[in-house]
Structures are given as structure tokens and as C-alpha cells.
């Protein structure tokens, strides 16, 4: 692992534990096993280092959890995508909470949560539009609301399960599957081999 990589990983770890104020350059450098001079040569400032470290994690999540351009198996595709996002937020919830807590005094940190939310929302919304256009779900589904519902419950669970365990009476490992199963029913995703939503509605109108 090179020095830059060591510093990026150390910054994420220290920031998640100590927040922006507690994540001093000295502490980050010690965690990385280098001196402060090296840190400043690589990143210029603490703000630059922490921002790059966290946004790199978001970019990695985005790149690893793309939804297909042509929906083939919505249940499997959405489960994989939802599981990846749930595990990411669950794994990084201390980091996200630290960023949210520091957002007012350090506006640069506010963009971390925004980047995560935007990445989730836009990817999911575009996929649901393709699903609707292909006739694989209810033709009148509100894609914007649907994407907010699924991404919102994933984020709320992963961020709040430790604090409010009574709100989540099912194990964390079951959560993505439960959410996706409910979501698919809510937006009218048809079972494989069934007529698509548009054809079915046309058939009903024809026989009426």
C-alpha cells in the first residue's frame, strides 16, 4: 500500500471515530504511520484529505453497484443493488453521522451525505424509469416517490438500527430482501412469464 492510500484509509477511520475537529492531522498521520509533512505534501490540507477519502468510498460504491441498462430480472437486480447500498451505509454509518454532525460548522462535509444520497437516488430512479418504460411494472408508478421510498428505508435502517432496534424486529441480514420484496409488490412488478403491465391493462379494457 502506498503512502497516499495509507493516508486515505487512516483519514476515514479517524474521522469516523473523532469527527472533523478530533481528526487532527497529527492523529491521521500517526494512524497512517507517516509524518504530518508527508500528509500536507500529498493533500495540502486536512479538509482536502478527508473529503477525498470519503468521496472515494462513495465513487467506489457507485461503480460497483450499477443497475443494468436493460432490466432482465428486477427482483435479483434490485436485491443486489439494495444489499450493496445497505451494507455500505451500515458499514460507514459512523462516518456518515460524523459528516452530518460537522456539516454546519464545516460546509464541505455536508456534501458527503448529499453525494451518497444523490448517487443512490439517481441510479435507482433511472432504473425504475427503464423498468416502467419496458412495461415491467405498473404504468402509472411514480418513479420519483418509489425511488425515495426504497432508498429512504435502506438509509434509515442502516443509520438507525443500533439506536432504535425496536423499530427493526427482523435481522439486518434479512432487511434488504424484505424491503425489495415489499417494494416489488408495491410498484406492480410482474412475475416472470406473466403479461406485462401495459398489455394486461389493455386486455382488461378490451374485455370491459
UniProtKB/TrEMBL annotation:
One MF term in the entry's GO annotations: DNA-binding transcription factor activity
DNA-binding region range list: 24-43
Top-level division of the source organism's lineage: Bacteria
Domain HTH tetR-type: 1-61
Keyword tRNA processing: no
Keyword Transcription regulation: no
UniProt cross-references to Pfam families, sorted A to Z: TetR_N (PF00440)
Keywords: DNA-binding
PANTHER family: HTH-TYPE TRANSCRIPTIONAL REGULATOR PKSA, HTH-TYPE TRANSCRIPTIONAL REGULATOR RUTR
Protein name from the UniProt record: HTH-type transcriptional repressor AcnR
Species of the source: Luteitalea pratensis
Gene: acnR
